[in-house]
TrEMBL record, chain A:
UniProt entry keywords in alphabetical sequence: ATP-binding, Ligase, Nucleotide-binding, Protein biosynthesis, Transferase
Family stated for the protein in its record: Belongs to the amidase family. GatA subfamily.
Organism: Candidatus Accumulibacter meliphilus
Assembly behavior: Heterotrimer of A, B and C subunits.
Function, as annotated: Allows the formation of correctly charged Gln-tRNA(Gln) through the transamidation of misacylated Glu-tRNA(Gln) in organisms which lack glutaminyl-tRNA synthetase. The reaction takes place in the presence of glutamine and ATP through an activated gamma-phospho-Glu-tRNA(Gln).
Name of the protein in question: Glutamyl-tRNA(Gln) amidotransferase subunit A
Highest taxon listed in the record's lineage: Bacteria
From TrEMBL, chain B:
UniProt family annotation: Belongs to the GatC family.
Catalysis performed (reactions): L-aspartyl-tRNA(Asn) + L-glutamine + ATP + H2O = L-asparaginyl-tRNA(Asn) + L-glutamate + ADP + phosphate + 2 H(+); L-glutamyl-tRNA(Gln) + L-glutamine + ATP + H2O = L-glutaminyl-tRNA(Gln) + L-glutamate + ADP + phosphate + H(+)
Domain of life: Bacteria
Lineage of producing organism: Bacteria, Pseudomonadati, Pseudomonadota, Betaproteobacteria, Candidatus Accumulibacter
Enzyme category, top tier: ligase
Protein's name in the database: Aspartyl/glutamyl-tRNA(Asn/Gln) amidotransferase subunit C
Keywords, ordered alphabetically: ATP-binding, Ligase, Nucleotide-binding, Protein biosynthesis, Transferase
HAMAP family noted in UniProt: GatC
EC number(s) reported in the record: 6.3.5.-
Any GO BP annotation: glutaminyl-tRNAGln biosynthesis via transamidation
Gene for this chain: gatC
Protein function: Allows the formation of correctly charged Asn-tRNA(Asn) or Gln-tRNA(Gln) through the transamidation of misacylated Asp-tRNA(Asn) or Glu-tRNA(Gln) in organisms which lack either or both of asparaginyl-tRNA or glutaminyl-tRNA synthetases. The reaction takes place in the presence of glutamine and ATP through an activated phospho-Asp-tRNA(Asn) or phospho-Glu-tRNA(Gln).
GO molecular function: asparaginyl-tRNA synthase (glutamine-hydrolyzing) activity; ATP binding; glutaminyl-tRNA synthase (glutamine-hydrolyzing) activity; transferase activity
UniProt subunit comment: Heterotrimer of A, B and C subunits.
Length: 489, 98
């Protein structure tokens, strides 16, 4: 039951094969058993989750359930949930019990899903390994000496180890896709503006986007159907007619379901920056896609190599502004001792933020300061335009772009923690997508040395449904996404 | 380009983050490594390229200027419950005007 797809769980709940309370209990027991080893959750509240499950069972009994009613889902601790500790994995918010629900939380509540707990993450979503969390690093279920990726590492580890049926994440520079790749999951970052950011603690507002982490593309489509939608409380929420993101998955298909699809292979994704083992698996997936009827074309994203540099100006600049709100006045941590107002600010922030968050605030403050704005911030925004134009040009030649998600499989805990630049470069294949605002997902494409690798598919704006279908067709003929780590029976 | 210790202190002050001399010293090294990565941008000729501030080129929506929330005082209480220090519906901070 624990490893079933969301669709199968939904059927089992609808036919009373299992109740939501029983299902939720199973996951809670698994969390109690395995979380001490993985550290994937920051908060679990059994009574609240079971009460929600009971309410879901009543709804199901009346025949008023939807596809996610009664299904236990874990949420990244970046989403405010009323009555729940919402920490963003920071000491700064270690005492913050949210007085309101984020739009994403409210939407899952309305769908009758059970809030199973809040997952660990990099502090304020700043990191690629989950090692910057105030609550300690998360371990990768495939190898507990390795990182699960980040920043949505707790969500990824929880789903991979069967501690949640699915989870939410956020992706500012790869924070859904990279942990999905490192933990053998399917994870999607939708087009910027598709999912409301209301109540989602801001890191870099022009890049942040929420999305699902689950085993399959079919599961992600179900989750996105609940998460997506216009919200006037988010000024960048996109007003579009509702759509069923799983609509293409249901279509019957012959042996060549992707005939006519053009897959772009950017030269920049296939250079020597990627480890040979991961590249070998990506090439295996490309061969599979040709079998499915897709055609591959060479494309180029020449400005992509500048994406990490531009990102580490834009994201810290926006972060330095967003995180100015944490001043010890209205919520969160306040230093115990100070002489005056300025000292209260500077001590509260010095004590409340971790090293990586401070580093990024300092970078952001510097690039926005007088005399440096044009050379850094404006130049980064111009490069952002060049990157977006590269993608626009590539999408004149192809329907989706394919490449590795991460240049390597999961690295060792501590391996890159002392070297920020090496850590930043591990997001080389994912960052450009956020700068352009495009949708992308990562799907499992095999194992190297017992560790999973991810394949990234990038689509043009608002083509989530097609992307999910392209992922789904591969998952119909492969079983990488069904592999489970051992030790979590 | 390389930052000086003085600049690190100045930026930390602007960001309102207290920083010791020792921390500033180690931060300086890390920031300089990060900036050497960022400097790659400077080699690119971007003359005439329109800066891109946002993923979607859309204008901000406007709304009527009226109250849309209800139960303001209950809401205010709920939001002030998580504040470090409040009194009579106000946030308390150290005295700024003598």
């Amino acid at each position: 039951m624990i490893t079933d797809s969301l669709q199968a769980l939904s059927r089992a709940l609808a036919t009373k094969e299992i109740s939501s309370v029983e299902l939720t209990r199973q996951y809670l027991d698994r969390i109690a058993r395995h979380n001490p080893q993985l550290n994937a959750f920051i908060s679990v509240d059994e009574a609240t989750s079971l009460a929600q499950a009971g309410a879901a069972d009543e709804r199901l009994a009346k025949g008023e359930g939807g596809p996610l009613t009664g299904i236990p889902i874990a949420h990244k601790d970046i989403f405010c949930a009323q009555g729940w500790l919402t920490t963003c994995a920071s000491k700064m918010l270690s005492n913050f019990v949210s007085p309101y629900d984020a739009a994403v939380i409210a939407r899952f509540k309305a769908a009758g899903a059970v809030l199973l707990g809040k997952t660990n993450m990099d502090e304020f979503a700043m990191g690629s390994s989950n090692e910057t969390s105030f609550y300690g690093a998360v371990k990768n279920p495939w190898d507990a000496t390795r990182v699960p990726g980040g920043s949505s590492g707790g969500s990824a580890a929880a789903v991979a180890a069967g501690l949640a049926a699915a989870a939410t994440g956020t992706d500012t520079g790869g924070s859904i896709r990279q942990p999905a790749a490192l933990c053998n999951l399917t994870g999607m970052k939708p087009t910027y503006g598709v999912v409301s950011r209301y109540g989602m603690i801001a890191f870099a507002s022009s890049l942040d986007q929420a999305g699902p982490l689950a085993h399959s593309a079919a599961d992600c489509a179900l989750l996105l159907n609940t998460m997506a939608g216009f919200d006037e409380r988010d000024s960048t929420s996109v007003e579009r007619p509702r759509e069923d993101y799983g609509r293409e998955l249901a279509a019957a298909a012959g042996s060549r379901p992707l005939a006519g699809l053009k897959i772009g292979l950017p030269a920049e994704f296939f250079d020597d920056g990627c480890s040979p083992e991961v590249m070998h698996l990506v090439e295996g997936a490309i061969a599979e896609y040709r079998q499915l009827g897709a055609e591959t074309v060479a494309v180029s994203l020449p400005s992509m190599q500048l994406s990490v540099a531009a990102y580490y100006v834009i994201a810290p600049a926006e972060a330095s502004s967003n995180l100015a709100r944490f001043d010890g006045v209205r919520y969160g941590y306040r230093a115990p001792e100070y002489q005056d107002l300025n000292e209260m600010y500077s001590k509260s922030r010095a004590q409340g933020f971790g090293a990586e968050v401070k580093r990024r605030i300092l970078i952001g403050t510097y690039v926005l300061s007088h005399g440096y704005y044009d050379a850094y911030y404006l130049q980064a925004q111009r490069i952002r335009r060049l990157i977006a134009k590269d993608f626009a040009k590539a999408f004149q030649q192809c329907d989706v772009i394919l490449g590795p998600t991460s240049p390597s499989t999961a690295f060792k805990l501590g391996e890159k923690a002392a070297d920020p630049v090496q850590m930043y470069l591990s997001d080389i294949y994912t960052i450009a997508v956020n700068l352009a605002g495009l949708p992308a997902l990562s799907i499992p494409c095999g194992f190297a040395g017992g560790l999973p690798a991810g394949l990234q598919l990038i689509g043009d704006y608002f083509t989530e449904s097609r992307l999910l279908n392209v992922a789904h067709r591969y998952q119909q003929v492969s079983d990488w996404h069904l592999q489970q780590p051992t030790g979590f029976a | 380009m390389s930052l000086t210790l003085e600049q690190v202190h100045r930026v930390a002050h602007l960001a309102r983050i207290e920083i010791s001399d020792g921390e500033a010293q180690s931060t300086l090294g890390q920031l300089n490594e990060i900036f050497s990565l960022i400097e790659e941008m400077q080699a690119v000729d971007t003359q005439g390229v329109e800066p891109m501030a946002h993923a979607q080129d859309v204008a901000q929506r406007l709304r009527a200027d009226r109250v849309t929330e209800s139960g303001q005082s209950a809401q205010r209480n709920a939001f002030q419950e998580v504040a470090p220090e409040t009194e009579a519906g106000l946030y308390l901070v150290p005295k700024v005007i003598e």
